[in-house]
Each structure stands twice: as C-alpha cells, then as structure tokens.
Amino acid sequence: MPLTFNYIVLALLLVYLSAYLGKLMVMSSRDNIKANVLAKGMKENKIRLVEFFVKITTFIWGLLWFLLPLVGIIYNKDFNYFKFNSQTRTIGIALLLVGLIIFIVSAISMKSSWRVGIDKNTKTALIKNGIYRLAEIQLL
Hints:
The protein is mainly α. The protein has one domain. It has helices spanning 2-30, 45-74, 86-110, 133-139. Helix 1 (2-30) packs across helix 2 (45-74) and helix 1 (2-30) packs parallel to helix 3 (86-110). The N and C termini lie far apart (48 Å).
C-alpha cells in the first residue's frame, strides 16, 4: 500500500502541470497573452530579484515533488524519507488535493487576468467573482 502514495503524488503533480501549462497555452493562443512573466521584461531590480527567487524555489519544489515519489517507484520500495505514518501521508495527500482544487478554480476564475509574475504591460479587469469574491468580503 505505501507505494500507492507515490503513484498518487505523481498523478497530482501531472494534474497540476496540466492545469498550469494548459492555462498558459489557452491564454497564449486564445487571448494572445503571455501569462508567464515571472522575472521577465523591464522591472525594478527588487521585483526582478524576488520573482527570480520565486522561480528558483518553485523549480526546486517541483523537482522534489517529482523525484521523491519517482525514486520509490523505480526501486519498487517505499522510501519514507521523513518516517511519516499512513495517516500523516493521507492527510498530506488530502491537503495536496485541496490545494490543487483551489489552484484550478482560481486559475479558471481569473480568466484572462491570470498571470505568473507582475505584468504592468498588459492591463486586464480586476476579478471580483468566483473564488475571488471571498477576498472582497474580507477587504470590506
């Protein structure tokens, strides 16, 4: 059963990557918007530095998300790196799933206003509906 966790984690990663890349492709082809502007273009040095740091740490996070379960699958062994029990792993997978659902709903709700990074060149509407209407309630 523990190897099943590795397959579930990899499947969730593939769903995330599909949603992320799919959103980028749809925006590029349908709306002619380059949505991935992280550490690209003319930006203040502070913004560029922060976005570069986000880009590097996100890459490392994604690489670990991919490699840790893959090693377990390749060697047909449960590498329980942090000695988590099944309950803790199940909670972790549930949190991954909830976060993935929130990400997908957020990306869909943003429509053509969705960006990765600060984009001062392309002006789009402020989204106040869908999941983002909850943020508006908090601001009031």
